[in-house]
Amino acid sequence: MRVDIISIFPEYFAPLDVSLVGKARERGTLDIRLHQLRDWTRDVHKTVDDTPYGGGPGMVMKPEIWGEAIDAVVEQGRPEADPAALPRMIVPTPSGRPFTQEVALDYAKEPWLLFTPARYEGIDSRVMAEYGSRLRVDEVSIGDYVLAGGEAAVLVIVEAVGRLLPGVLGNACSVADDSFAPGAMANLLEGPVYTKPPVWRGHEVPEILLSGHHGKIARWRRDEAFRRTSDKRPELLARLDSDALDAHDRRV
Ligand code: 6GU
To answer: Where is each tRNA methyltransferase TRMD/TRM10-type domain found (predicted)?
Structure first.
């Protein structure tokens, strides 16, 4: 997968060299290119923002700079094999639609993503209108709180998507068991996990996990997932697949 990121803080993305995403980059599974937005400014001060029309606090990012930057990155990034290819453009913003595991799975199918994280009060809306008619543009939020800029959200999204790419995770099953993974565990939080020793500071590992009864263990894990979900995220239970609920209720 090719990923382009245009930002006034390309150095913010140093963590993409580390761990799972870093290894995927070394192997070439992920081809991440960082671009400095200010490279497309023409004034000595390299200005990227201006005061908002209509007044109010803060600054808005200028459309011309983003337009030139996006045009250049899209032009440069066109694969030789498919010169008509266009990236999916992802604009992180607290006013976007929620980024969920379902959205991550959707992005993981794309060959090319372009991220345009903003600082200040955001990007002039005409940029999203312009590219919305030329490529697919998604405004996405990673949660109901406000960050100082979209860069941290890009790190979150790239990590969530990167671990879904073929060959990135050591164990493909761990994706299937994820909290929020589609299937039997859809909308359920994962329950507790344990490793050796069997007793630590007087705390025992639940006996069932030492029993070797795979069927009973699977059922226990499902029960724990329901327990944890109803405790920490009761609103998720309301969204549960009715088949999953029926299967659970038949047992309890
Ligand atoms: Cl994507 N950006 C910013 N600035 N704040 C956020 C966010 C994104 N998602 C939640 N808060």
So the answer is: 1-238
